[in-house]
Structure formats: structure tokens, C-alpha cells
Amino acid sequence: MNTPSNAIPRSSFEPQAAAPAVMTAPRPFYWSVRRELSEYRSIYIAPLAAAGVVLVGFLIATLGRALTLPNPVDRLAVLEGPFDFAMGLILGTAFIVAIFYLLDTLYGERRDRSILFWKSLPVSDLTTVLSKATVGIVILPLLGFAITVATQLIMLLLSTAVVHASGLDVTTLWNKVALFQTSLGLLYHIVTVHMLWYAPLYGWLLLVSAWARRAPFLWALLPPFAIGVLEKIALNTSHFTNLLKYRFMGSPESPHLAVSHDSFAMFLGSPGLWIGLIITAGFFAAAVRLRRDRDPL
Amino acid sequence: MSVIEARGLRKAYGTTIALDGINLRVEEGRILGLIGPNGAGKSTALNAILGLTQYQGELRVLGRDPWKERDQLMRDVCFISDVAVLPRWMQVSQALDYVAGVHPRFDRPKAEGFLAKTDIKRASKIRELSKGMVTQLHLALVMAIDARLLVLDEPTLGLDLLYRKQFYDSLLNDYFDRSRTIVVTTHQVEDVQHVLTDLMFINRGRIALACSMEEAESRFLEVTVRPEQLAAARALKPIHESQVLGRTIMLFDHADRQQLTALGELHTPSIADLFVAVMGDQARQTQGAAR
Description:
- The complex is a heterodimer of chains A (297) and B (291).
- By secondary structure, chain A is mainly alpha-helical.
- Chain A has one domain (28-293).
- Chain A contains 13 helices and no strands.
- Chain A is globular and about 70 Å long.
- Chain A starts with 27 loop residues before the first helix and ends with a helix.
- With 291 residues, chain B is α/β, with parallel strands linked by helices.
- Chain B has a domain at 215-288.
- Chain B contains eleven helices and 13 strands.
- In chain B, helix 5 (131-143) runs parallel beside helix 6.
- The interface between A and B is large, with 44 and 50 residues.
């Protein structure tokens, strides 16, 4: 035994410089989430890039245009326009990243055979699947939210400067943009719609990712499409298609941006929400089972 | 308690039988070599032991059912598989962080110590490392885990002779002690000749030979038979006969040493010789069959 166990300098690449000899209690869930974030760096790069695009566009187009307008009231109208656009672009990007991430994550680890490494460590399949679900369903939307709010805040500060320079009252702008209220409404919308109401979609994507031997994207789309077509041919009805439409294209029951106790209570009381969550749990359970069973590709 | 205990272990993929009711017992402190042709069922057996595949029959690893309790089992079991499976996107430092984060028995300074003896840089991505370095890294991670069972499935495949020798040297010098157990499969049997304590040949899902190395050395004898003794030698029923450079070499199982000395020059057969003798014809047939 000639192990120079403390002969080497501590590397500067360690984020948390714990005392070297102390073995901390294992935190499989935390580390599973962390490794997802370092493997799929698009999780934060893509929304940040979208925010960058929004800000550059805002600087060049909106601020530039606003400054050329002679009438200060027109300037105000131009400035408040892109706030919704910023939100849509950043959250839309986060949503698309979430879809691709969930579809790839359990498929990718089998394709590159790294699953054999992950499985050689004391991390259960349940922990792994839950950590991946958390990244797609909780972390990505919340990250999108945070980046949206930060971007809008920067836009508001820039606009304030322009409005102030134009000699107008900034409170008009602040009242119109109302960043705090819209952010609260946005957060409510993200939690109710993007996380809870859309949950079966994410569950389905994870399941396909765990199941598919190739082309997970195709497998995610084909079965729902095929069921819809078969139902139309066999029964000449469109219940399944309508069900999907109802779920993902909005409905009277689906929650809106408005934050109120009544609408939230109605949302929590809707059977659709709970049925969706039960189906999601079923998808998760199947994904966990499949991860245990499936061989590397 | 045995480290691994299997009774009637069976696994079929459709109509192909990968494991045909294997009985197996591995005690603590042994280094077992599982040797067999491609498609013999070695990897299936290891996968069953590691909880990576479902099986029929009885199997206990460190007293646990590997299929049902894989994550618990992996606190005490480590494995390196035949393909380089370390995630290619990871940095070396991230791999250390991750294993330290999830494994209760990982000794990070020890792993850093092993890495310090190599040329592996902490900031390198695994995809930038050579195959030999990836194996070194994997071995460093695994040897820093205080596990009771280490499973190696073709760990040195595709490595040059120096890396291979280094691999087994560090395994024996820096890792193995009497409280640990190692199971290894490899085609490079000459590498493990002096590493193993136990030998198991497996073919077509069945165990063709299982014995300790001491037992193998006393049981099997190879004789370069003098031409005039050929008939007498054949009468003693050698398990294998081959011609090398015009000389006839016969391999005997459970033969009387005294008797054999009269026939010609005696040697202890290598694992490779034994493999050819015990599995020769069978092996050639299975090689053709798909996995």
C-alpha cells in the first residue's frame, strides 16, 4: 500500500470544498438533479439565450424606435409592448427544452450506455426518474419564470430611463407594466397550468423515453395520433382527440392568469386535475419499472 | 454467508437460453474468473448478480435479492462493465463530485490519490481521455469505494498490454484484501492466470468446470508424450490431445502423476490450455451462434 492519499493539492474545480476526509451523508436525489443540470446544459442556456435575444431586440428595436418618436405618449405605448413578448419567448423556450429533455433523458442514458455507470451506484430507479421529472416539470418552468422576471425587470429599468429622459411621469409606465402583479399571475399560471394541468404530458414523455428503442420523438407522437384516427374510423367519434384538445388547448375549467381564491379552489376541485395527476403517477411508475428492466441499446 | 449464492439460476431471451440452471457459490476473499466463449452466458450471469436483469431461480448476493434491492446492494457492490460506460460529457472532477455525493462508502481523497499516479487531469472531459485513461479513472473511482464485492466484466478489453498489467497490479496491490471478493470475466486469460484464486468455465449457459486454482493445478496435468508412449498415453484417456511442432501434447484430468511421468515431460497447464481442452469443440460451435 503506497497510496499518497493526501499528497495532491485540492483541485480548484470543486464547487464545495468540504473537509477532504469527511464523508458526508449521501444525497442521491440532490446529486441526481445536479448531474442532469450539468449533462443537459441547454436547460439553462436556452432560456438565457432567449432572454439575451429579447434584450438585444429590446435595446435595438424598441428603445431605438421609442427614442425616434417625437410624441412622448407614443414612446410609452411602444415601450410597454414587448413585455408579453419577452415572457412568451422565454417560457416557450423553456417549455420546448422541457419536452426535448424529458423525451431524451431516459433514452439517452441507454443509448450511450452510461446507464450501466449510473446503475452501478446506490441510486434507485425511483430516485432517478423522480429527479428527471423534477428537472423537467419543476426546475425548468421555475427557471423560465425567474429568467422572465429578471429580463422584464431589466426592460423596465431601461424603459424607465427612457421615459424619465423624455420628461414623462414614470408611474404611468409602472402602472401599465405592473411587473409585480403580472409576475404573481405568471407564477400562478406556471404552477397550475404548466406543472399540474400539463403533468400527464410530461409523464408520457418520460415513459416514452424509458420505453423507446429508437426514435422516441416519433413514439411520443404516433400512439396518440393513431388512437385518434382509429377511433374516428371505428366509431366515427373523436372523444380521444377532444380529450387531448381539452387538456392542452384550454377549456372553461382550465385555469387562467387571474389569481383569485375562487378560481384556485375551482381548479383544485376539478376532477380533471386529479385524474390527470393519477395518470401521471401511472406513467411515472411505468417509467421506473422500465428503467429497471431495459437493457442498454 | 457466501458473497454470491445461486441455485438453478436460469435466464432465457425468447427461445435462446442464456443461463441454464446454474449453481454457484462464491465465498468471501476469493477472486473468481468466469471464463467462456462469447455468448456463453457470462454477462447474463453478471447482470443477474448486479440486479440489471430479471432471472428465474434463486440468487442471493450478500444476502440480498439483486433484482429487488439493486440500489441497496450497490452500497456494497461495485462493477466495471465491458464497454466504457462513464458518461462522456462529464468532467473528471464532476465524476468525483457525483460519486462522492451519492455513495456513502466513497473515499474521495483515496480516489484523488489513485488519479495522482496517472496523467488524468481533473478538468478533462471524459470524452477527451484515451480508452486506457477512462479505465484508469473508472478503476480509481471503484477502488476508492469500500465495497465487499467487485464485478469486472471484460474490464481490460481493448487496452494495450501495459495498461492491462497495470490494471491487475493495482487491483491486487492497492485494493484486494481477504475481506473483499472479486468476480472477473475476460478473454485475456493469460492476464489473470496469476490473479485468480478460483476458476469457472461457462459454456452455453452451463458451468463446464468450477474449481480453485490450487485444485486445477493438482488435478490437471499436461504431458508432452514421447512418440513411443502414444498408445499407452491414450489408454489413460486424456481429455485433450494436440499436436504442437510435431510433438503430441495430452492433457489429463485426475490422472496419476507417477504414471504420467513415465510417458514424457510434465507441465502444469495454463488457463488457456485448460480452456481449449475443456471447451474446445463446444466453444467453436457456440462461437458461430449469435449471442
